[in-house]
Amino acid sequence: MISSAASLLRRGAARRTVQSTGAVSAASTAKKASVPHSIFRSMNSASTIVEDDDSDYGFGKSVPDNKIPEEFIEEGEETIGEWTGCTRKFLAPLSVSQSGSEILNNPLFNKFTAFKSGERDRLHFRGLLPPRRVNMKIQKERVLQEIRAEPSMIRKHIILEDVHDRNETLYHRILVDHMVEMAPIIYTPTVGQACKEFAMRYRRPRGMYFCEEDRGHMAAMVYNWPEKDVHVIVVTDGSRILGLGDLGCNGMGIPIGKLSLYCAAGGIAPHRVLPVVIDVGTDNEELLNDKFYLGVQKPRLQGSKYYHLVDEFIQAVRHRWPNVLIQFEDFSSDKAQKLLNKYRDDILCFNDDIQGTGATTLAGVLGALRAKGELPTSLGDQRILIAGAGSAGIGVAQVLYQAMLEHGRSEEEAKNCFFIADENGLLGTERLDQLSPEQAMFARDTDGGLSLNEIVNKHKPTMILGMTAVGGLFSEKLIRDMGKHCERPIIFPLSNPTIKAECSAEQAFEWTDGRCIFASGSPFDPVQLKDGRTFYPTQCNNMFVFPGIGLGVTLCGAKTVTDRMLYVAAEALANYLTEDELSQGKVFPDLSTIRDVSKKVAIAVIEEAIRTGQASRLDEKALADLDAFVQKKMYDPVYVPLIEKKA
Predict the structure, then answer these.
(1) How far is it, in rounded angstroms, from Cα 418 to Cα 445?
(2) Which residue, 508, 426, 492, 507, is CA-closest to 459?
(3) What is the DSSP letter of 623?
(4) Which of 14, 566, 523, 603 is nearest to 267 (CA)?
(5) Which terminus has fewer CB within 10 Å in the chain: N or C?
(6) Please, is 291 exposed, middle or buried when counting C-beta atoms within 10 Å of its C-beta (0-12, 13-18, 19+)?
(7) C-beta neighbour count of 131 within 10 angstroms
(8) Distance between alpha carbon 40 and the CA centroid of its chain, in Å?
(9) Are 164 and 575 in contact (CB under 8 A)?
(10) For residue 7, what are the β-bridge partners?
């Protein structure tokens, strides 16, 4: 859980210089150039890769730069010929079993027109490409120009995914270098519309699909996936896609988007991720009658048939990839907690909607307390109103509750801080027979059924968290009443996409006269009030947590994702926030720093895994230079030489 109040108050006075790919300044790059390495490149500014020694795609050994003469380290880019804008420095080549047009059609290896003449000859596709060699920088500029000229967000998404389908290296380079601009395009809020239109814009296979017809065959099916070293699987059954409900097979857009963030923000190589849909049918009448829908057009499986299908999938993927991390994503509330409870103590898995949202929200709440000038231990003094008693709302309550216990509060004291309401009002003990065990834990002995407005006026909460997917639920009266009872109310409308947000940033700041501390699930633009004050709302998005958790547990070979790992991940994220960001009203770091945030989260998770004996691949010796170790292991999208693998 949270280690200490003091640790959360550490300031990064000399705030981290972001070394993640694309965030390194031109001056820094000229001063000390990293050497790309296979399809990975060292992210450690204190070392230079010189030798492959780990896995098919290699990681490498390092030599301190201070022992290498300066003239050997510095090498500029070429300015003439086909090497213009490129370097001739040694890059460890990647052996591929394909050649000719096969490479041009494989997005993991394709470089578009950046292939040099030597590669075109040795890989047998001279003449299959236009003659001019165009480097990655110009390729990126062309794609960005096309995206920025398009006013429609869904059209931007389609342009970017077209690159994803043909050239993964360029795609991830664009994400890494322009995360602030690209994140809303590849994920929330645009991914919701992309899922709704998934069947109509389907162009190329990506990921795997498992359905009832596949029962008994899944152990063999998983070997149809061409990559042998999968580290992370994101799987959904499409039953609760964002705030849009049952989208069935169309929900594949969510695992694809999440794994793009795993690669770009978390440094997991794209050949090591696998998006999955478990298609158990759909109860969406529109999809059942849609002639273009690509999924199973039958009502959803229920009961034992559903759980047996999921279990066969779990066993099949773990048989082929025993150490894979399985992330459950957008399962309906009635299934999500049951699946998590079934597997969490036995395999490497976690539920992002329950645990990821909880850890991210905890980090945001701790940041908000800092903004109010309060200690993290004051979490147990808050009165917390949670609108939404589904898997996300209860997951957040559980994480906040555990943090309070860590701070020394009793179970009763911690429970009394929560007021959780669903569509029938405040959860009360009078309807225990209708609640799940997790919901029942927070049911109150009195006032069951109170509305949100009644809860605000009677119990005077200091923060309100929205996880209902009911757009506009937080009315002006509700927010103004909160402002009457609390000098600086914490307001987090966390539902996605934007149209499902319980209120907007502008509404929250206006209705509280700029006194609230705000974060949202989807991005909002800066808000300027009539008096000229400007506020910068930040996004309480799980992308700040799950890529780092995935990177950490896979690097150290963790056996499970423990609650304690989630807590230290939240702590690492909360610690990253600077005083300057707090002064601007932000409770999460700038999205441009997400690679470095993910590294810090991964380090915290690895340290916890080593401390508790969970790390099967690392021991305490790794703690000596863990920062450099993690940075070196992070995938960096650069073009490397390809050579044909000899038979």
Answers:
(1) 12
(2) 426
(3) G
(4) 603
(5) C
(6) exposed
(7) 10
(8) 20
(9) no
(10) none
